[in-house]
Automatic annotation (TrEMBL):
InterPro entries recorded: HATPase_C_sf, HATPase_dom, Sensor_HK_TwoCompSys, Sig_transdc_His_kin_sub3_dim/P
Protein name as it appears in the record: histidine kinase
Keywords: ATP-binding, Kinase, Nucleotide-binding, Phosphoprotein, Signal, Transferase, Two-component regulatory system
Domain of life, source organism: Bacteria
Principal EC category: transferase
Boundaries of every Histidine kinase/HSP90-like ATPase domain copy: 154-247
């Protein structure tokens, strides 16, 4: 009996030691993953704050003064109408021209928040429209149903494809490109071209300073909890692949989307804390 207990104790000790060794071996890997996640979150936060700062600057320092100046001009026109009505025409023409400039600024701000082509054409047609003249030929295909994609996923997919096709236009205008999108629990996209591919430093395994456009594509995917990779393929050409999760984004959209009454005014959700 003592021999059996002693053997069990030895086995238990060996098992515990093995488990401790395995746990210790995973600690550096977990630490690296944690550090990578923290860096990724910091980049996303920095990018979001820069965008908010840009938007505030555009609204407060550019559009705001323009509208205030227009209000002053209308006051001047009202006074002129009472005293010197013959001078009204040039004043109103000036106000109209400046109002047209303000409308253009508002449209630019709206375009920066969400590309209007997505609302006017839909994701696939918007990509096809942007791809015109990009290179000799661009084929755009969507396997599945593009309807009902979350807005954030549509924007990220469009911007990633847009950036990839912009690189094709700049570096491989004489080649061809394929844009392939497919949908299951995630949205998958691929942009492949027949151009020269990535610089030699990338192919040789070096880690040069990433170009802003390539880094932006990865950030747009990471903001949704997805991933993006840019590689060169054998025989020449660059391949951009991305995975954009749908489930989490759809749940967030349902949570934040206000319901509307008959008047179209938003009704706050009750019981949300």
């Amino acid at each position: 009996m003592r021999a059996v207990l002693a053997r069990a104790a030895v086995l238990a000790g060996a098992f515990a030691a093995g488990a401790a060794t395995a746990h210790a071996a995973t600690i550096p890997h977990l630490l690296r993953l944690t550090a990578d996640l923290q860096r990724s979150r910091e980049r996303i936060l920095a990018s979001s704050e820069e965008e908010r700062r840009r938007l505030r600057h555009d609204l407060h320092d550019e559009l705001g003064p323009t509208l205030a100046s227009l209000a002053m001009s209308l006051d001047a026109a009202r006074i002129t109408l009472a005293c010197e009505p013959e001078r009204m025409d040039p004043l109103l023409a000036d106000v109209r021209d400046r109002l047209a400039v303000a409308v253009g600024e508002i449209r630019e701000l709206a375009h920066g928040l969400r590309p209007p082509a997505l609302d006017d054409l839909g994701l696939v047609a918007a990509i096809e429209s942007f791809a015109e003249g990009c290179c000799e030929r661009v084929d755009v295909r969507f396997d599945g149903d593009p309807a009902g994609l979350p807005a954030a996923v549509e924007v990220a997919a469009y911007r990633i494809v847009q950036e990839a096709l912009t690189n094709v236009r700049l570096h491989a205008p004489d080649g061809t490109a394929l844009v392939l999108l497919s949908r299951d629990s995630d949205l998958h996209l691929m942009v492949a071209d027949t151009g020269p591919g990535l610089p030699d430093a990338w192919r040789n395994g070096a880690q040069p300073r990433p170009r802003r456009g390539l880094a932006a594509m990865k950030e747009w995917a990471a903001e949704l909890g997805g991933s993006c990779a840019i590689t060169s393929r054998t025989g020449g050409g660059t391949v951009v692949t991305a995975r954009l999760p749908l489930a989490g984004v759809q749940a967030a959209a349902r949570y934040h989307r206000p319901s509307t009454g008959r008047t179209g005014r938003a009704i706050g959700r009750i019981g949300r804390t």
